[in-house]
């Protein structure tokens, strides 16, 4: 009965962290001291984290460039389709990856991708891919380096990613006008579904296995491989779903702490077998998907209200940042917001703000 309570509480905390723009599972999971609650919150966060990018043009580190096709589909009146594609991709990857990890089929591959030379190669490929087809290369590089320096300066700040990502992507998106929204071109998908899903699932597994490579960073490669908005939304869902399952599997196989939930599992004294953890992860994903289908229409109304009363949302965001990161987090939020607004004014891709993650990771390899 106690595990059931922790499991259900974890789902509630996970869906709240996913549905609130600027929040992340890493901010919530530290309050959970039961493994059932930790894995439940992780899966719920993944499913609900696609809602803010679609309806508020917000973004978190795990979703990466899913923000851009979701914006375009939303402006075309296809918000629900974008939501169903992304969350279905995540749920399907949960359902496929969990049984495979339960039989330890990927354990040798986890050890292979833990090699630092492989990690450095993948990171360099991502950085190169980031600047492919950049129309304003100088400004793109400027934003990448500015956010990278900010990432380095904030490495010792508690929960620094929350104020940074909220500043880079959340506040500027709320303040900007519709005509300023960046909408990269899309091409026809030709009806492909299996290939995008497989590529994305593999990318999520690689991100969970490779040091310093995040799902948001590797999504840059995925964005280039895939051709249409439909493929990209399905693929981004599969990427983060696969990454979440593989992160838990990698923790059990090698002890790698590739996410906040894995780190919290390592901190607590209570443990459960991998098979049970994967079952609870999958069960939470299924229940969260059902809850999202049932309550998505109400969430839409909430986000529309936020768009009408943006000052209230900004005040709430500041309160959350202060609670999780303190006064220094507020300062970091305003600095990153300035850079985020500058990115829009310079008309360069906001994904260049991912320098806050990739530059510190690259410095860590070189020194």
Question: What would your notes on this structure say?
Answer:
It contains 17 helices and no strands. It has 367 residues and is an all-alpha fold. It has one domain (2-134, 184-309). Helix 12 (215-225) runs antiparallel to helix 13 (229-254) and helix 15 packs across helix 16 (310-345). It is globular and about 50 Å long.
Keywords for this entry:
367 residues; mainly alpha; 17 helices; 0% strand; globular
In angstroms, what is the radius of gyration? 19 Å
Q: Spans of 5+ residues with little confidence (pLDDT < 50)? A: 177-190
Q: How many helices does DSSP assign?
A: 17
Overall pLDDT confidence: 82
| Category from helices, strands and their pairing | mainly alpha
Brief sketch in words of this structure:
With 367 residues, this protein is mainly alpha-helical. The chain has one domain. The protein has 17 helices and no strands.
How do the strands and helices of this protein lay out in sequence?
Elements: H1 2-19, H2 25-28, H3 35-48, H4 51-55, H5 67-75, H6 79-102, H7 107-113, H8 116-130, H9 137-153, H10 161-175, H11 194-209, H12 215-225, H13 229-254, H14 260-267, H15 274-308, H16 310-345, H17 355-366
